[in-house]
Specification:
The chain is α/β, with parallel strands linked by helices. The protein is built from 5 helices and 11 strands, in the order ββββαβαβααβαββββ. α4 runs parallel beside α5.
């Protein structure tokens, strides 16, 4: 079975406060005499399900097109964070049944209920990874971390968590939806769009149960 954990892009999808809204509009219509239907998409590179590259918070020139492709494909674990957890702290992580040698982890938190309910408001009280938890992840060799809201870091102070992860080379996957995904091991694919020189990029994220079959 394959789980689509991407957020469908539409003008109704919330964006980070202060960012321009998503634009998805039909600019040519066959019903109106055009040769083909054509749509226009506009927004920041941090809309919906997306990858953050180090240049986003480190200003170091390491953009999405310079990230190693192999990190976006491989074994991953969906970990259920208790509903009562305000944030994902190192104490919360230590209490989880942590998979040995996990390099890709996706956190299913109380945030996912908003996607399940079709709630299109931006919530500033989302559960996020705190700086001490970011250091905990780095110490355990995590290469990719995903979260079920539009930022990996707390709303009131987003820089520290991002910088700790990015300085260690950890790739950040934000804006995934996990309310329909049971905890466990999967194969993850979440390749970002090939945007040259961008500090982030939308991605299509999928989870395959077990090892993804390879045909050839």
């Amino acid at each position: 079975m394959v789980y689509d954990i991407s957020l469908p892009l539409s003008p109704e999808l919330p964006v980070w406060p202060g960012d321009p809204p998503i634009v998805l509009e039909r600019i040519a219509r066959m019903d109106e005499g055009a040769t083909a239907n054509v749509s226009r998409l506009a927004g920041t590179v941090h809309i919906g399900t997306h990858i953050d590259a180090p240049d986003h918070f480190l200003n170091n020139g390491v953009t999405t097109d310079r990230l190693p492709l192999e990190v976006f494909f491989g074994p991953a674990w969906v970990l259920a964070v208790p509903e009562e957890a305000e944030h994902i702290t190192s104490a919360v992580l230590s209490a989880l049944d942590w998979p040995p040698q996990a390099q890709r982890v996706l956190f299913r938190t109380r945030n996912s209920r908003w996607w399940a309910q079709g709630d299109t408001r931006f919530h500033t009280d989302y559960a996020a990874v705190t700086p001490d938890a970011a250091r905990w992840l780095v110490e355990r060799g995590v290469r990719l971390v995903g979260i079920d809201y539009l930022s990996i870091a707390p709303y009131d102070d987003p820089a520290p968590t991002h910088r700790i992860l990015m300085e260690a080379g950890v790739v950040i996957l934000e804006g995934i939806r996990l309310d329909h995904v049971p905890p466990g091991k999967y194969t993850l694919t979440c390749f970002p769009l090939a945007l040259r020189g961008a500090e982030g990029a939308p991605a299509r994220a999928l989870l395959w149960e077990g090892d993804m079959p390879v045909k050839g």
